[in-house]
Design goal:
The chain is α/β, with parallel strands linked by helices. The protein is 41% helix and 15% strand. Strands 1-2-5-6-7-8-10-11 form an eight-stranded parallel β-barrel, surrounded by four helices. A two-stranded antiparallel ribbon has the order 3-4. Helix 5 runs parallel beside helix 8 and helix 11 packs parallel to helix 13. It binds zinc ion.
Length: 341
Amino acid sequence: MLFTLKLYPNTIWGKHFIGNFNLILNHLQQLRIRSIIVPVFQGSRLFFPVEGGSENGEWDLTKFQHQCHDHNIAFIPEFPVFHDPDTFDTIPQYRPVNLRGKAEFPSSWYKPICPSNEPYRNYRIQLIRDAIKTFDPLLVSLEFLHYPYLPEIQAFDKDGTALPNYCYCDFCRYQFLDYSGKPNPLDAIDDWFQFRAENVTLIPILIAEEFEKTGKNGNMLVQIPPITPPQVLEKLRRSTGQYLKQWSGLVEVISPQFHLFQFDISLQWIESMMSEFKQLQKVRVIPEIDLPAKATPEDLKRLEEALNYFVEQQCDVVSLFHAEPLFNQKLVQKILEKFAE
Ligand SMILES: [Zn+2]
């Protein structure tokens, strides 16, 4: 089994590594990590130089990418598409609106911007194009490619019949009127789901066009947030706008987030989701699991069970969230060692 690891800029430049790329890379090699997924921007902050842009100082991932290649570690740039704390804070009109018409979002860290917001979407796509030109990657990872979605609440909607909690902002309403001729999405719910799915799928379409222009056969991995089975494909379409069946031939890899510890996701839950994903055509699944913050013996057992299950399912790659709990814990490292190729 090959492991890919999510590594965040605040870990790379944080207190422990202080931007010492060699130290990180030696760690990664010891742990037999073969590829890493790294956000190349967060909010409006870029970790790569752009023409005419402001100075990034030492926080430049292009240098890190070069060193990764020297160490035979694949560098996968991640684009957090519709999550942007800076824009959320500075432009209140861009905040998502809930079913009750309130522009509020109950999360301390996740600050979504609505995919119906065309000016924002254009800005984000341009940023992604710049990143693709800069990093020239074979694979990119798209995180938060969905409508504002709260897994803590919505993932547990067992029958999946509830209306999405988000988004009913002015961008959603005006654009939907334009799209369907109907002013109220709640009176035309099927059109509404279709409208949302098209706005989400537009992003991979535009990225595929960008890859074509660069002449490189680049691919996309899209991260799928937690959702309760059964009927996850339909629930994802309704709650998040991720219409996986529409992505066939467009998105090569999906990476469902099976967060064993954060969301207490059981093995049965994973099995059920994996069997639904198998119905999808031409899509490869790279499951993502989280690592426990302070592993108890019970946590380690669950981690090992999940990995054994992925071996049985012949998953050749598993994504790990994230570097810090791995670097900090010898017992977690020991378990992964048993599975690493
Ligand atoms: Zn909206």
